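REQUEST FORM: STRUCTURE PREDICTION
Request ID: SP-0412
Submitted by: Lab K.M.
Chain count: 1
Length (residues): 153
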Amino acid sequence: MHNNILADFSKFRLQKALQFSAYFIQYAFKSHRLFRTKFEKIISKAYYAKGLMKTTLAILALNEAESIPLVLPHIQKDWVDEIIVVDGGSTDGTVEWCRENGYRVLMQKKSGYGQGMRECIEIAAGDVIIEFMSAGNCDPAAIPVLIAKMKEG
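STATUS: Completed
RESULT:
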């Protein structure tokens, strides 16, 4: 029985350390100061290994009705835990296409790229947020490569 109590306590301590790390990483993203210490690297690797760290793909868009139907189908939804299309006020059918194709759309309250990211960070469920431009200048094939690197630590 004593060993079970110690094992449970060790699991609890690891879980709390991982939660602290997730909050720290989220805070670092929110304050736009991202730095990684050796400890964070180890914790993030453990977090990914246990399937605890979640990723959000933030797709920023403004009047991208021509490019979005060409780009988004190349992004596999199982690469990340959540996909949010952040729309800066499109008037060309971008929002309608995204909704019709099952994408979650965040309508920005204020204009600007930085404001769009701030609003996305506020609602994102992911511990890590990957920015992705919908204009066709980002390669969707880079997303799983990036996630694999994060899993390595």
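NOTES: The CA atoms of residues 4 and 10 lie 10 Å apart.
Reviewed by: T.R.
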